[in-house]
Amino acid sequence: MAAAGVAPLLPAVLPATAEAAPSGRPDFPLLRDGAAVEVFVDAADDPAVLRAAGDLQADVERVTGSRPHLRHTVPEKAALLVVVGTLGASPVVDRLVADRRLDVSGVKGRWEASVTQVVDRPLPGVDRALVIAGSDRRGTIYGVYDTSERIGVSPWYWWADVPVVHRDSVTVPAGPLKRYEPSVRYRGVFINDEQNLTTWSYRTQEPDKNIGPRTYERVFELLLRLKANYLWPAMHPYSDFFNKYRENPELADHYGIVVGSSHPEALLRNGVHEWEPWAQEHPNADGSLPVYDYTVNPSVISDYWRARARQNAAYESSWTLGMRGLHDTALETKYATTVAEKVAVMNDIVTDQRRILTEEVGTGAEPQIFIPYKEVLELYNAGVEVPEDVTLIWPDDNHGNMRQLPNEAERARSGGNGIYYHLSYWGRPRSYLWLDTTQLAKLWQELRRVHEHGVDRMWIFNVGDLKSIETGLSFAMDMAWDVDRWGADDVEDFLAEWYGRQFGRRHAPEIAAIRTEYYRLAAERRPEFIDRQMFSVVHHGDEAGRRLAAYDRLLERVRVLGAKLPEAYRDTYFELVEYPVHGAYLMNLKYYWADRNALAVRQGRGAGTNRFADLAEAAHADEAAITRRYNTEVAGGKWDGIVNPYPSQIPKAPGRPAVTRIARTETSGLGVACEGNETGTARPLSFSSFTRDRRFVDVFNTGFLAVDWTAEASRPWVRLSASGGSLTEQVRVWVEVDWTRVPEGTYEATVTVAGAGQRVEVPLRVVNAGERARDRARGFVEAHGYVSIDAVHTERRVARGGARWRTVRGLGRRTGAVEAVPSTAVPVTGDFAGRAPELRYRVRFTSAGSFPVTVFRLPSLDERGLRRVAVALDDQPATVLSGQAIATGNRGDAWARNVEEGVEKLTATVTVAAPGEHVLRVFMVDAAIAVDQIVVDTGGLPTTYLAPPESYHPRFNPDPGYAPGLDAPAR
Question: Where is this region: Disordered (predicted)?
Fold first, then answer.
């Protein structure tokens, strides 16, 4: 245990809604004289509680090697006893409460609350008991699993192979420990896009089924250990529908899991698998098959729904109302063509479904939910009448941006509000199913916004195939239980705590930092979204190469830390840390080398062209190899089929980029291309004493035979990383300026590259403002024809009208972003300087004129409102910038571009009357706007995917010169 740095989960790391009171009394041992303390649970308690008590048995044995006896009668004599029971269902627990021996204040009568407390002499013949009591059956179950976590059993012990460290002494604090009501009543997942999960399940769990009871047992247990209570089961053609096996709903009820169904699956019916057989069994009078259209076949469809309501009436279920087409398609209404007519049809559908539930299920038919997803949202906004006691489930845009949130009237409804949110997605404009790539800070930002708008009845997260989403799902469930536990500054603290539970506290901070950088790189572009020519390979020091160098450094950190872990943790580390980082790196790497290959063709390179092709192919082979390792070697092949970056039929999935090879020729020749130019050297290399950059010059062979070359600078203060040699392929020469030797002023210089009878001159433009100017600068300084600002680096922030800007660490493409809060603040539409919260940035311009200023805002939506921010320079009038507020679901439009890139670029014009210091001002117009970066183009800004590196600032960025990008063969 000491070698691994492992520590059990202590009360201090339970949610804020779990209150651990110091008692000053000795801890309760679960092991005595080498034998585990017996566990008592009344046989009359809920079957789900009895089953969870069995898991406690197993968990104690996992930790101690000794399995406690599970008993249903109180022993006549015992020094120690664990008592598990539900208030109102366990006479022993109820007696302790009545005798005021067990403190259930804040627990009794609440939803899923619990108390864990040591009671002395609780029963005749029992000296001391650890009592785990819940307000209801799931409250008791969560109390049981809290105890399991506290002794060192991770919720992911099975699904991520997290080792359980053996301990010879296991104790639980005397307490009381209270877990109060959750922030959100129903918290769960949608197993969707489950092709990989089905493949794995068929190969390793149930070879006669495509996800069946054995798999769902594992899913149910994981959900309960994560303190979730709700499931939308698998629905796609690859998977057997949930009710195909009657054991599935029976098991769910036995575990205490509420089962519902997704937006196209009304009243627990899986249209993908179930409608066609039903239609064949209920043909029309003329023998034709009925269609799934309520305007054509209402009675057949109504009977179809009724049969399932009757079949599942005895289980704790959630009932989805409304209707969409089969298999996640749009609603079909042959005899209703206008929006108004479709609204009337939807109202009839809901009325019919409510009647069915009343007649077949009765008062237990709750919760009932209505999901205005895609085209149904338009109908809802046009007047669909959803009964007051039905929960409205608001969907995101499938990419983590909430489309619409409830207004005041909707928040007042007795049914409340919920969300359907994607951590994984199959569909337009691109899918992301492979890795967990949604920044936790993004998840935190949207869920905070959701809760501030009164959405607290139900949170459902689409988790795809479940594996790879371990971290994101854990955070989502943590937020759902206690939305106030994590703040804008400490999302990374969650990572440190969570990874500390899996790997031990010693390594947790480093893993958290690795994961934060992994999420940041994914925020620039998800690895599933990578494509040809996304990132520039010629501008800003090779934008793509610098990004890959960041991945390379990150992977090296992963390897260094992995080598320090005990062998028992290697599989878990590969699953949770190494594979995501390495896989994302290789997906990006093969496209980088493919882009370099394509550029080499345009530049006329010889052997180097094929070298880049080889590197792209090697990266693809490496990616296939680590995926094969995951599926066939990790945990002894336990996860066979669970990971596949390319499941069939994924829209716009990246794959194996095409490369070009050229035939060998027995020739040689000299070629030169410098930074900022795809070919040649027309655009000079720009150097500033403020940024102190490095710039590159690519020297390459146009043939296959070795060529000798030399490079020489025209000024003594120009330094080169290489001055010549012999090359067969290519070499990247880095050019720098020795600022201690260059006089103040603006200078022209050249680097002359010669070889094979050719001479190529590379022009340099060097601006030295002097050390005094650098020291005196008070803000961001223009250089190279632009000013680039990380939005968190403000000179001043001004709060107004009860609203303000706050930093959300770990959000966006840099270290953090600024967000206008609270999300419920009223929009400001005028007198910005007097009424709107403001960000101020001091900027020193070296030129004058009218310049474009681009605000990089993080996408967010409001389909009943607007997404606006305003910018101004000094005291000039502010310009309001309007962002995309509506999710179209299309490819290639503004919304699609925003979700693919993770930012929306909004541009205005500011006028700089004269060079010198100015103040750039950003105002909130609409709340919950998040700003990541700001760029002013003063005439030298090339078109690139990312914003340029941040400009010089004496405090925030005193040494902005960037490191060289990736230019060595991949690992």
Answer: 948-971
